[in-house]
Amino acid sequence: MNWDKIEGNWKQLNGKVKEQWGKLTDDDLSMIAGRRDQLAGKIQEHYGILKDDAQKQIHEWSNAVDDAWIKADEKKPVL
Q: Is the four-CA dihedral 4, 6, 11, 14 of positive or negative sign?
């Protein structure tokens, strides 16, 4: 997924982020503000994993979010 799209919709995606990484706090999400590198750092910090593993999780999550958005767009009626 285009990370600019995630960053631009960060507030709407906070719930999805918390579903995926429940250890992240609201303060963490506010500080991250859609920045991928900040998200990776907080995942590393809270879950004690390597940077590469955090990046892999973010990549997989962003692809899943992208798929959900595509499906939602397909259901919208065309005028």
A: negative
